[in-house]
Amino acid sequence: MGEQSSPIQDTNISYVENEDRKLRKALSTWDLLMLSVGGIIGSGWLFAAYAASILSGPASILAWVLGGIIVIFIALVYAELGSMIPRSGAIVRYGHLSHGSFAGFLFGWAYFLSAVSVPAIEAEAVVTYAASYVSKPALIANGIMTGIGTLIAMILMIAFFFLNYAGVHIMGKTNQGLTWVKVIIPVLTILVLIFVHFNPSEIIPSNGFMPYGWAPVFGAISSTGIVFSYFGFRQAIDYGGEAKNPQRSIPIATIGSVLIGMAIYSLLQVVFVGGIDWSKVGLIPGQWSQLSKLATASNAATAYPYAYDLMNAPFATVALSAGLVWLTYTLYASAYIAPSGTLNVYMGTSARTLYGMAVNGHLPKTFAKIEERNRIPLIPLITTLLVGFLFFLPFPSWYKMVGFISGATVFTYIVGGAALMNFRKQAPELKRPFRLPAASVMAPIAFVLATEAVYWTGWPTTLYLAIGIFAGLVLYAVLAALHAIDQSFNITNIKAGLWVPVFIVVLTVLSYLGEYGGIAVIKFPLDLIVVAIVSAIFYVWAIKSGIKTEEIAAMIANEDQYV
Questions:
Q1: Which residue of 249, 324, 474, 531 could cross-link 319, Cys pair, CB 3.0 to 4.6 Å?
Q2: Percent of the chain residues topping a pLDDT of 90
Q3: Which residues are CB-contacts of 393 (< 8 A; sequence separation ≥ 6)?
Q4: Exposed, middle or buried: residue 98 (CB in 10 Å: 0-12, 13-18, 19+)?
Q5: CA distance 233 to 76
Q6: Bridge partners, 88 (sequence order)
Q7: 135: CB partners within 8 A, 6+ apart
Q8: Where are the beta strands (DSSP E) in 188-313?
Q9: CB of 462 within 8 A of CB of 509?
Q10: Cα dihedral 394, 397, 400, 405 sign
Q11: 176-215 pLDDT, tens per residue?
């Protein structure tokens, strides 16, 4: 009789497994679906329709469809990853598991930057809508929040901190109720406006369906809140470690939520474009750039109130101009419910992101400790609240913050395709309840599309993103120097993850040279072709540099794929 191999033992791995097991397994498939739908339908439906229309005109409808297709490719990759290794804070852990600590930290930090800023932007959305009918005290001045507006936003975040503190079971059930309201009101808005106040001729006005060409359509996908909205699907993955049956629930919730979001958002864009009363601003249909100039004029609130209100409360203004007072009040109520529901979800998501980074060894172990009473990561939750407050300083309005969040979010998903193929090669014995068909084709497509989406956020957003990510390395160095964390970077994982910082630099340079806010040395559509070729090269590098990490080896040896 041969000797049995003994389980791989590692102090950090054992600690992590114990903390993962403490998480309450309370969420059903329906709970996960509602979490993802709740993440998708937030402030995006209140403001993104206006922002996308200003940038690309009626073709913004196409931007929502294309954005949804891009996100589906990415979501399919994560459906396999999420059902294969369901963990709370999972998205920040896949890069670590496939390419080691160095790459894992960079992707994890970028994801944290995107997730922790969402509660702030959702709180800003509530205040912005309120500013359209609350004049004293002033909540918004010159397009940014006042001191009073910021204080109200902070109080809102504190309220949802306590809801998350009550535990995932209560948070999940509360979210279900909020999500139903968040779905019903947009659907009601679509039905009422399309039958009562809709002008089909405005979909193709005198200057055409695509007045500004294709380039702004792609730009709208990343810079106006479209991908920002769709990436709410990640909630099912981030909460996977607290699901009753993650192998079944995660794929259903992930793909189902994106399809629901595509249908609702595309139709909302249709009724918004077809519901503008251009006569109220003295413009002919289709003059979107001129409308934006009127809305942002210094005296817009008094000289061009319709344009100003469209910017601050798009759908409510359309409903009021149609004489639908009851719908207007309903939409104002939704302006509290929709962002608040998303704020609620992302407060927990951000906390689980920090938990996942601590699990990876990138933050002190106290961040991976589960509070016994409510079985939640308490220290990460407190940190999420405090760091979220800081985002009000550089980004004091919804429109200013959404581009940065979109770029940071999409960047973190670039690793998904490479991680999936690396796991197929390095860990074929892991169970895959959902196995992505044609993964050798789908994975690189997801990688390239995610890269294009980062590029579309434009210069200088890509520069800010690069600075933010590399600043994380400074934090890591400080924590390591203070011995708050164990130094986990070594020759092996630095070599495996070297493609990540090089990719960030190259993508930033391409952004500067490109047409999306850059100096336009590389013109559209050549720039998209160049970015696609470059991203394909980095995809091959990422596949070649993948390793079988200690965590994956331990997972296989100890047979604890599902904890």
A1: 324
A2: 50
A3: none
A4: buried
A5: 11
A6: 239
A7: none
A8: none
A9: no
A10: positive
A11: 677 788 889 999 999 999 999 999 999 999 999 999 999 9
